[in-house]
Design goal:
- Residues 1-13, 24-33 have a biased composition (Polar residues).
- Residues 1-40, 135-163 are annotated as: Disordered.
- This is Mediator of RNA polymerase II transcription subunit 9.
- This protein is mostly helical.
- Among the domains are: 40-101; 102-132.
- The chain is built from four helices and six strands; from the N terminus they run E-E-E-E-H-H-H-H-E-E.
- The protein has helices spanning 48-63, 70-97, 105-131, 135-141; strands at residues 5-7, 13-15, 26-27, 32-33, 147-148, 151-152.
- Strands 1-2 form a two-stranded antiparallel sheet.
- Helix 1 runs antiparallel to helix 2 (70-97).
- The longest helix is centred in the middle third of the chain and has 28 residues, at 70-97.
- It is rod-shaped.
Amino acid sequence: MTQPTAAGPSNTPIPALNNDNNNSTYNTASGGPSQPLALQPGTFQSLIPMVDDIFSTLYQQSISGEKVSTALAAEQVAPKAKQLAQALETMKSAAVDLPGGHLSTEDIRTLTDMLEEQGQQRREVLRAFEERSMPLTDQLGGQDEIAVDGEMSSAVLPSPAGR
């Protein structure tokens, strides 16, 4: 399923950043989130201890001298597996709820490439301004006395050409 798109500054389509399943607020007038989302402490945790606990239980059952019934094995492993599944689901929903969390890695690559391209275009514009001959700014830059109480001294300003 493709995400809806909007046209960027160069009419390049970009994936929509608001998601109906996302409980964040998005202010389209300013183009950004109106409230940042805060992750709850402990949202993301290591799964290794849970997986290790499940494997340890299964290993103990496999090397045990007595035959372990399927019901007993399930009784020991099932709660730990449910805890692991709940932790995974909590982390998945927290990741999706982050701004842009619903985007695929391909969408993120597309956005990154587009932003890098726009950044390069802006650097080129700034470079062009830097290389331009601007006599007024050169003249103002050479003066010692530029501002007095936030206003330019009339001695520093060039005289108007037609007056």
